[in-house]
Amino acid sequence: MNPTSKLIMMVFLNITIFTNAQVKKDLELYDILKKKDSILFDAAFNQCNTDLLKTLFTEDFEFYHDKGGFTESRADFLNPMRENCAKLDKNQPQPAKRILDKGSLAVYPLYKNGELYGAIQKGVHSFEFLDKENVYQKGEIAKFTHVWILEENNWKVKRELSYDHQSQQ
């Protein structure tokens, strides 16, 4: 590699490093996606609101789970949830809940030609499940990564990874 090529490569790497840094937690993008994360998991675990969830995922949504496998579309992801939600007793507490580990959430903006088009959000969360006495018990702790895309001025999850599930027991 000639000296000019090396210099161009070093400049490109420095620009890439500085433009793809994590968003500070007090910035608007971080706050928007933190709120979206909360809405997403509230709809899934507390409300069982698949109509709201449908608005939070792209049609070509993909879900990768280290224990549950691969789900190829928004419909394939939401249909089983919709069936399970229909079976729930509305007078009973939600059978599972998700807890975001404080301080674990990070957001990394994605740009193309200087324009924000998406973001990577990652964090750690844990789950609790009701036992036979309707008392929440610790379940697993896991890492997650969401690829959010700005689609017609709406933030939607295009890809979700849920991995490194470990028992909290």
From TrEMBL:
It comes from the Bacteria. Residues 42-95 form the DUF4440 domain. Transmembrane segments: none annotated. Gene3D superfamilies: 3.10.450.50. It holds the Pfam family DUF4440. InterPro entries: DUF4440, NTF2-like_dom_sf. This is DUF4440 domain-containing protein. It comes from Flagellimonas maritima.
